[in-house]
Every structure is written in structure tokens, then in C-alpha cells.
Amino acid sequence: MTTILDGKTVAAERREQIVAEAQQFIKQSGQVPTIALLRGGEDPALLSHAQSVRRSFEKAGFGFAEHALAADCPHEEMVERLRALNSDPAVHGILIQEPLPASVDADALLLLLDPRKDVDGVHPLNAGLLQQQRGLYHIPSTPLGGIVLLEKYEIPLTGKRAVVIGRSDIVGKPMAMLLLHRHATVTLAHSRSENLPALCREADILCVAVGRAGLVTWEFVREGATVLDFGINFVDGKLTGDVAYQEVSEVAGAITPVPGGTGPVTSVMLLANTLNAARWLAER
Ligand code: NAP
Fold it and tell me: Which CATH architecture has domain 141-263?
């Protein structure tokens, strides 16, 4: 029997805990954990993401602010806004929505983000601290949510073979690192990997973060393996993952559906990271 890794239920449980902790924090500190989204332009995908973050934060009693600059805003203007958010004591988390306008140097901007407010864990300081497991750092919310799901369903990781497809700084690489820290033996695959189906068939845990609908078919999956699908694709207006769900669920031992798998947990982990940021900033 295949276990469905039910992200909706896990997210709802986690949300309840985080909301309770946030209420306690608000009572003690008088501060409401607040996130600010920074972007240039009105790309519909960015607007839709901002909407869903707004809904999630407002429902949890967290603060939310949107800073949308013009699609052709000069780099300096974006920098100025970021510096203002860095130094605003009422803002605890900052999410830079990408893609940024061509006029903005995204790499230079990222380096100016206060790492303590980097609730998406993309600043190199957070990535480095995660790699070395030193001190306090933010972990990108999507892979963090993936680990929460694996742990909730008590999927064994120690000594197991894990393959992660996709090597982005926001999903694939940190996911590989989190699995490694839990003593899995990890392979990080990407677009140049050879014999991908055979490589993936070695996995006890297969994590897919590519952005190609249906890339992973039954041929990629060992009987009984756990499959985490991070993909977000729209096919004929319908949300679908990177995994051919029907056929893979006949082979896998456990699998995340899309929608209702990794997505809802990601959104709750962003709340958790924002609460952590508010705590760290209050302690300084
Ligand atoms: P990304 O930065 O575009 O990275 C995609 C990765 O996939 C790259 O490493 C790329 O390899 C690899 N790749 C591309 N085609 C491949 C192929 N045919 N075979 C093997 N690997 C291939 O994407 P991302 O930001 O990591 O996002 C990945 C997916 O996760 C997207 O669908 C995104 O929307 C989704 N996502 C989901 C959540 C969530 O909450 N579930 C959150 C964030 C993102 P190279 O490095 O060689 O180019």
C-alpha cells in the first residue's frame, strides 16, 4: 500500500503550533512577526505568490507588507528600499521575489539583505551556516518542509540512499544538505546527469525539484521508495508536479501529491522562519 504524504494535514498541525508560539511571542515582546515582500513589476506569477503569502500570514495573525517597485526601477532604488526594510524594526523577514527587473543586479542586491531577516535562507551566509551546521541560520522553507514531511511520516533516512534532482540554491542544494545532515547518502542530480532513470532507481528517497511536468516516470523509481515532488507546473491550467503521479504511486512506497504535498508545508515553514527571525532580532 502506498502512503500518501499528506502535506495539507501536516501543514495544518504545524500551523496551529506556530500560531500558538507566535501568540506567546507577541504577548511577551509586544511585537507582531512581520514579513515584507520586495519585488519589481507586476508579473502575474509574483502577484499570485504574494497573494498566497498574504493569506497565509494574515490568517496566522502575522504582519504582512508588500513593496512593489516599478518594472524598470533603477538598481539604486531597489537597494534603498531594501536598506530601509533591513533597518525597520517592525519588519522581521524579507522575501525578495524573483525574477527581479533586468535593471536590478540580483546578486548584488542579495548580498545586501540582512541575513537575520533572510527568511527564505538564500543569503550566502545562511547557506554556508546550513552547510556547516553552525550557529543560527535560516533554512529555505521548501526543503525544510520536505524534511518535516519525511520526519512526520517517520521515513528512515540514516544510511539510506537519497537522490535529489535539481541543484538550485533554494530547493535542490539545501534539500541535499538537510538529507546529508540526517545521515543519508546523497546524490545531487541535474540537467547534465547521465542515465538519470537508473541513477534515481538507486534511491530509497527521491526528491524532485526541476519544474518539468511528468519528468519522473515509473522507470525512475525503485519499488517501495519515497518520492517527494517539489515541482510546480501548470498544464492546461491545472497545477501538476514533476512526477507522473498515477504511474509512480503504483511503484512508490510513499509519495507527495501535487497539489497538497510539499506546497502547503512550504507555506507554513515561511511562517516558522519569520517567527524565528522575530525572536532572534528581539534577543540582540
Ligand atoms: P530552478 O532554479 O529552475 O532549478 C531547476 C533544476 O532542475 C536545475 O538544477 C536544473 O539543472 C534541473 N533540471 C532541469 N531540467 C532537468 C532535466 N531534464 N533533468 C534533470 N534535471 C533538470 O528551479 P527551482 O527554483 O529549484 O524550482 C524547481 C521546481 O520546484 C519548480 O517547479 C518550482 O516552481 C518548484 N518550487 C516549489 C516550491 C514548493 O513549495 N513546492 C517552492 C519553490 C520552488 P541545471 O542546474 O543543470 O540547469
Answer: 3-Layer(aba) Sandwich (3.40)
Domain spans of the chain, in order of start: 29-116, 141-263
Q: Where are the beta strands (DSSP E) in 118-217?
A: 161-165, 185-189, 205-208
Q: Which fold has domain 29-116?
A: Rossmann fold (3.40.50)
Ligand 1 center–CA 214 separation, angstroms: 13
Distance 4 CA to ligand 1 centre (A): 22
| Fold match flag (29-116 vs 141-263) | yes
Pocket of ligand 1 (CB under 6 A): 142, 165-168, 170-172, 189-192, 196, 209-212, 215, 230-233, 262-263, 266
Ligand 1 center to 206 CA (angstroms): 14
| Model confidence pLDDT, tens digit, residues 250-277 | 999 999 999 999 999 999 999 999 999 9
Q: From the alpha carbon of 212, which atom of ligand 1 is closest?
A: 32
The tens digit of pLDDT for each residue in 113-160 reads 999 999 999 999 999 999 999 999 999 999 999 999 999 999 999 999
Confidence check: pLDDT of 284 > 80: no
Count Cβ neighbours within 10 Å for each residue of 229-241 and write b for 16 or more, e otherwise.
bbbbbeeeeeebb
Cβ burial of 65 (10 Å; 0-12, 13-18, 19+) is: middle
Residue nearest to atom 47 of ligand 1 (CA): 191
Entry pTM: 0.97
